TrEMBL record:
Coiled coil: none annotated. The lineage of its organism: Bacteria, Pseudomonadati, Bacteroidota, Flavobacteriia, Flavobacteriales. It is an enzyme of class 2 (transferase). This is Purine nucleoside phosphorylase. The keyword Plastid does not apply. Pathway: Purine metabolism; purine nucleoside salvage. Residues 23-268 form the Nucleoside phosphorylase domain. It comes from Flavobacterium hiemivividum. Belongs to the PNP/MTAP phosphorylase family. The purine nucleoside phosphorylases catalyze the phosphorolytic breakdown of the N-glycosidic bond in the beta-(deoxy)ribonucleoside molecules, with the formation of the corresponding free purine bases and pentose-1-phosphate.
Amino acid sequence: MNIETIDTTVDFLKGKGFLSPEIGIVLGTGLGQLVSHINIEAEINYSDIPNFPVSTVEFHSGKLLFGTIENKKVVVMQGRFHLYEGYTLQEITFPIRVLNGLGITKLFISNAAGAINLNYKKGDLMLLDDHINLQGGSPLAFATVADFGDRFTDMCAPYDEDLNAKILAVAKENTITLHKGVYAAVVGPQLETRAEYRYLKVIGADAVGMSTVPEVIVANHLSLPVIAVSVLTDECDPDNLKPVNIPEIIAIAGKAEPKMITLFKTLIQKLD
């Protein structure tokens, strides 16, 4: 990866009308309905963007959108990239560097995750307060990373404390249950075994998923304030484990999405 590659992609998108977004939003599994609340001014398929990866997951749309929501300019990734698709961590996070190059000053991330904390239920939302990286690598582990920022990026508070406080207040105002917890990122695409779920609980995870952490690491590398919310789509009880039902997971994410939309829209409205 080099700065010139990012600049080429940024310049291309600016030429397509992606001008001066304030907020970047990454939409995860089953969380595409937010786009219906955006006054879209420009959109483009990932496959048409120079140097961009292409989503291979059937329930990720693979479009970049630009428009207005709550009087703020936003750029939205409708679909993201994962290690389990065969991409490198640098490729997965390339779009975050591009969004930063376009000018965003805040990054909102959503994902679907499994609840390790059995006090959390299907359809609940969890605000990420911290994370555990179990993906076996770092998006900052490449030779020229110092060209982009400090190689030894501090991660003592990876999620922006001010944004987290604001979204918790929004949840309370709207009587939305928003847990605060620790997200463990694994490679996937296979789901966890009973022993792995027990392990995740022992090490302090409240939820588990296959994304988000690389994006958050890069946001911190760029000094970009970031917030992330999980929709908890299944309960990972190792003593009562049933085979995974992907259509059910997508359906639960879809039912919970209006709460996510309320949180994100109201938070955007409250930002200066």
